[in-house]
Here is the input.
Amino acid sequence: MKIITLAIAATLTASTAFAAGHAAAPMVMGSDQSVENGIVSAEKVIAGENGWMVVHRTDADMTAGPVVGYAPLREGENIDVAAILTEPVMPGDMLMLMVHAETGGMATGVFEYTLGAKEDGPIRIDGNLVMSVITAQ
Here is the structure.
């Protein structure tokens, strides 16, 4: 019985270590889509912590511009994340779907970011923003 218990404990420890070492990196997977319904969606978003998928305007320079929508994210894998647009977006407009944190603000669960602020700001991995650029159809 003691040998079985030790074997189970060793297996659980190894599995936990494997999972911790192989957690999926934050990412956003989005594709060009119609915005006629006032929604922008990402097929999949992986977040390292609770946060936000934020929709920024962008252009050929790939610089994040004003926020035009956002949606909450849970830590881990999020499927079909839909953000309601807060201003008109026209076909041909480029949009940057970006992962932001839920940190530094005055209230949890309230999106407080404004362009250039630190509250609920963008996540960076090795200095790079976690984002995907799409074109509105």
Q: What stands out?
A: The chain has a mean pLDDT of 87. Helices lie at 2-21. The two ends are 63 Å apart (CA to CA).
